[in-house]
Amino acid sequence: MRFETFVASRYLKSPRKDRSISVITKISITGVALGVAALIVVLSVMNGFERDLRGALRGANPHLTVYSMMSEGITGPESKTLEAKIREAIQVEEVAPFTTSQALIMGRNKPMGSLIKGIDAQKEPQITRMNFFVRTELFEVQRQRDQTPEEKKAEEERAQKSLDLLAPHYEMVARPNGKLRRTKVSGIIIGSQLAKNLGVTINDWVTVISPEERITPMGNMPRAKKFKVVGFFESGIMGYDEILSFVDLKSAQKVFGLKDKITGLSISLADGDMAEEYKKDLQKSVKFPFTITSWIEQNKNLFAVIQLEKLGLAVILTLIIIIAAFNIISSLVMLVIEKSKDIAILKSIGATNSSIRKIFMYQGSIIGLTGTVIGEILGITLCWIISEYDVVDIPSGVYIGNRIPMYIEPWQLVMIALISFMICFIVTIFPSLKASKLNPVEGLRNE
């Protein structure tokens, strides 16, 4: 065993005579551990939030969308030709037509503006996760991880039933005189926040007023149609649940005077994360007057904000580790003062400056390593507790789920441990240099 290793082990194993040094050492270890644990928990929450948000956005938006740059939209024959080009250019799971139009919806409360999307109810669940986002109650709490396969299947069947009711169908509707009459009904699925603002529930009637006008004996009048509320759209994404509404494609074409025209085609891919690569391949075949966007491109600003927040929080919490590491300096400096006589004796019997320096660097490194390991264990434990138990119950309708999302990235654990240990190692340099430069004569002068 090398000389400095032997001396360092003796220093580490021998009891401290000065309790103040021991207390500062414990404070240093605690500070590093808490800083590491806080960094792990916060980054895990941000990872979980980003993963849930990406999943929700990938589910609420088509992986790729092809629009027409011409204001009149895409005609029926054009859409068939375009779909054939898309299927020939890239491998797709499904292609579905859609329309988007702005309209005014009148419910029990004051009228609200909405973006009405006309969809094919049979194809849409294969394009987006409509089966997952459609609810039969406002702000219905979904505990997907606790659901049995039977419960999940029952939920999907209820959602599909709501989607099937979008298409015009016949129902027995009560007239003002109380008599039932067989009436042709079209359904509408309204965003949960929008439905709350309108004050409507399932089976209520709303009136959709289109900006398109039609000629009547009274003059030009806006097109209007009554729809029956058959479901609610709840994605938990800000800006979606407040404005989106879904109706049958043919109903939308009729209300907005589109005839057989559509706004564009929605495309579903086997791997939504590869949307940008598929977009580049598709652009080689589908050119002007069509434009292609991916779900990642449509939400790139949101992802940029999340990454910036993660970076800012990581920097702030790393400062906590740095502050805790300065306690290591205090501990080692006090140790140098306390052990000045021992250092002088060691140097007088042949210990080199390098040996003395290594002793204190070992001491500081052990403190930093101990704090880092404890912090990693504490951080992982806290993440598990938060993810498994309802430590914080998120109100329904506020977020995508009802629990704080937690997702631990293994590479982040390694990176946090390396950075923490590196910081703790760097701060040992000053006290170790101070100890190695101690003059033996000064240390033994008063002995």
UniProtKB/TrEMBL annotation:
Keyword Cell membrane carried by entry: yes
Protein name according to UniProt: Lipoprotein-releasing system transmembrane subunit LolC
One of the protein's GO biological processes: lipoprotein localization to outer membrane
Every MacB-like periplasmic core domain range: 27-284
Topology versus the membrane: Multi-pass membrane protein
GO cellular component: plasma membrane protein complex
Similarity field: Belongs to the ABC-4 integral membrane protein family. LolC/E subfamily.
Cross-referenced Pfam families: FtsX, MacB_PCD
InterPro entries with a match to the protein in the record: ABC3_permease_C, Lipoprotein-release_system, MacB_PCD
Keywords per UniProt: Cell membrane, Lipoprotein, Membrane, Transmembrane, Transmembrane helix
Protein's cellular compartments: Cell membrane
Membrane spanning residue stretches: 21-46, 311-337, 366-387, 411-430
Claim: Cell membrane is one of the keywords in the record: yes
Domain of life: Bacteria
Residue ranges constituting the ABC3 transporter permease C-terminal domain according to the UniProt record: 315-440
